Amino acid sequence: MNSPRKLFIRTYGCQMNEYDSARTADALAHSHGLELAERPEEADVLLVNTCSVREKAQEKVFSELGRWRALKRLRPGVVIGVGGCVASQEGDAIRARAPCVDLVCGPRTLHRVPGMLDDVLRGRGPRVDVSFPEVEKFDCLPAPGVHGPTAFVSVMEGCSKYCSFCIVPYTRGEEFSRGFEEVLDEVRGLAAKGVREVTFLGQNVNAFRGAVEGARPASLARLIAAAAGVRGIGRIRYTTSHPSQMSRGLVDAYRDVPELASHLHLPVQSGSDRVLKLMNRPPRVDRYRGTVARLRERRPGISISSDFIVGFPGETDADFQATLDLVDEIGFDTSFSFIYSRRPGTPAAELADTIPPAEKKARLAALQARLADHASRIAAAMVGTVQRVLVERPSKKDPAMLSGRTGNNRVVNFASPAGDLLIGRFVNVRIDEALPNSLRGAVVPSRLRGMDAGA
Ligand code: SAM
Ligand code: F3S
């Protein structure tokens, strides 16, 4: 076929996958001049970045490949690739089930996609590489493209926690951190291009141990302090953290680093010690409570969100009630909750799953109602306060308005007296109304700046 011109990427799963897709697009723009297409029908190269955390996400991939096979029948030169966790898990087996696939790469080999694409275009046949090289990935990727004032920065890969239900350690490999200076350089480069807020990413981002030449590895707390000193960076977030690694230094950062956003996603999964033990999730609930109390002492008003799994094998009514009680006690902000999905190859897959599906669904609905209740109460309590908002873009619903996020990660839409000029700036916004999925407000004249507004 002629040289490919357009690339379409479909991404399933977590922010790490979003980040990986963006970096793959950057790499292919650099190597082959590929531009992003809006729809698969317009593209010459089709990639799907997959997730295997739950069965449903995994199955979506094969339905997508079915649709793409039809496109390839019409245009046989189209190249189809599969990346991410399903690719890592299935390897060659993907091609057995979907022979239309030309290349398969894992989460740690996406920087090799340009070379694999070359091989396919030269007629060398399909390419599969789902190995786990450690360092190479970030050394080989071009500098990340900048799209607006916020950016993700991946600081570590993989997970070594082996929660009994989770497939991630097997698909993404063990924890591996990027070098401290390498990450800081990326932050400096992004800030120079107008980025004002960075989110450090990792499956277990607080396990970050960034190598430093001639010294001890740097912790996430040290990275946060250093990034806060980078000119232009006004806000820092990180996700996802594991509760067992909320070190004292990291908790203290909420007192010492004003740029650190007043929001922490700290997955607890269950409010029952018995279930946490089966999940292989230390720490137990009491230690989690203690961590939250220390965080709130260092940063009053910090919002805490979590992931929850309901219907884990053997979860009793009492265990589930303990989860609901913890939700009320902590007052979690907008959180994620899932029905347990059995993942073959994980230890929990061996446990007898005796809870009827209808019961699992009922528990999920009850938990989600409780979580929604807390989230809307938190939003309602923000009405009348002044929040520091990073202005990101024109509002999706009404382009005459601007849209940004508060420190606790809520979308705020507001009329702008200065039009698009405010994009990329921090402004103080008075919150006037709490809607189900967003807030509405108005920019506060500068003489009132400082009231209530936090990171
Ligand atoms: N590193 C994070 C942590 O500290 O827990 C979690 C990353 S995991 C990919 C994202 C979320 O997916 C988990 O927190 C968990 O709630 C959910 N998850 C993982 N495996 C699951 C499974 N087998 N069934 C249902 N939900 C699952
Ligand atoms: Fe999965 Fe637990 Fe790691 S949920 S990503 S094994 S911390």
Notes on the structure:
The protein has 455 residues and is α/β, with parallel strands linked by helices. It is built from 14 helices and 22 strands. The strands form 7 sheets. The protein has a 6-stranded parallel sheet with strand order 2-1-3-4-5-6, sandwiched between helices. It has a 5-stranded mixed beta barrel with strand order 18-19-20-22-21. Strands 7-10-13 form a 3-stranded parallel sheet, with helices on both faces. The radius of gyration is 23 Å and the shape is globular. About 1% of the residues have low confidence. S-adenosylmethionine binds next to strand 16.
Kindly name the structural category. alpha/beta
Envelope shape: globular
Mean pLDDT: 93
The order of strands across the largest sheet is 2-1-3-4-5-6
How much helix is in the residues?
25-40%
Topology overview:
Elements: E1 6-11, H1 15-32, E2 35-36, E3 45-50, H2 55-74, E4 79-84, H3 85-90, H4 93-97, E5 103-105, H5 113-121, E6 127-129, H6 136-140, E7 150-154, E8 156-157, H7 168-172, E9 176-177, H8 180-192, E10 197-201, E11 210-212, E12 215-218, H9 220-228, E13 235-239, H10 248-256, E14 263-265, H11 273-278, H12 285-298, E15 303-305, E16 307-310, H13 317-330, E17 336-339, H14 357-382, E18 386-394, E19 401-405, E20 411-415, E21 426-434, E22 439-443
Parallel strand pairs: 1-2, 1-3, 3-4, 4-5, 5-6, 7-10, 10-13, 14-15, 16-17, 20-22
Antiparallel strand pairs: 8-9, 11-12, 18-19, 18-21, 19-20, 21-22
Helix pairs in contact: 9-10, 10-12, 13-14
The site of S-adenosylmethionine has 18 residues, from strand 16.
